[in-house]
Write a structure and sequence with these properties.
Shape: globular
Strand content: under 5%
Radius of gyration: 20 Å
Order of helices and strands: HHHHHHHEEHHHHHH
Structural class: mainly alpha
Number of strands: 2
Number of helices: 13
Length: about 350
Amino acid sequence: MTTILFFLSSGLFLGWSLGANDAANVFGTAVSTKMVKFKTAAVICASFLMTGAVVSGAGASHTLGKLGSVNELAGAFVVAFSAAITVFFMTKLKLPVSTSQSIVGAIIGWNVFAGLPTDQKVLTKIVSTWVFCPVLAAIFSVIIYFSFKLFLQKSKIHLIRLDSLTRWGLLIVGAFGSYSLGANNIANVMGVFVPTSPFKNYDFYGLFSITGTQQLFFIGSVAIAIGVFTYSKKVMETVGNSIFKLSPIDALAVVLSSSLVLFVFASKGLKLFLESMSLPSFPLVPVSSSQAVVGAIIGIVIAKGSKNMNYGILGKISVGWISTPLISGVVSYFFLFFMQNVFMQKVFV
């Protein structure tokens, strides 16, 4: 059991890194606009994130597993650790990078080291979402912004009443976003451990059952929650203030837009419903909450006439997105070499 916990520790580190980095994408705009206190945001984010991870986290992990099924626990440890180191480094630079890109890069590094082919169809599906995710978030953001604007013009709500409604709106939408983040991104944290999961399914006297995968996801979600409380405030400031100065209503539109994007890429129920109606559906893929929120902010900028955007910060974030999977892949390859040849651990079958 001690060995198992040691190998799982890299997933917990990655979970902590995700919580430290990606919580900003859910509540960063709300906190930076002073509409929601950081402690309140952290409690809501952690609670709903853990719920989303356990209840709805399995869907996106299947797609990630098709990219590369890491079949040894030591190999899964290295892949998760490599992704975590990359995300932690970017977090230290106060850049809201993609945990999804980091784990994909690390898995490809494992594929190369193990001499196994990377499923190009699955890789194309995942990479295409890196482009489609911010674009979809921007589209949602523009639509929601103008909908809010029209509603406010028609309703003529008093400013004090509007302030109260906006605060409650940010809390509710933030809770939804946190649930969606847990459901979509827990695959990045613990997905590589699913093929070698040491946990068994448990049935509690016929009342309810919890699978080994759900237990794994719960442990990972606890690590994410700790990351939210201990280190997410700094990145929240970058997301909320540095790209573009948002009003409280803008912040609400951004959080709702990015949350919707995470939800549509994680909801198995929505996918099945769309397919039953013979409509095109979204793939169940762990997308980047960082890309979603930045795309949503860009949507607000476009809606407001494309003025006052901090292109310098946006450029730094873009460079982080491009470099993240490359760095993670290289780190994964070299760490796998050391794990196998120095620590004499089997990293692939």
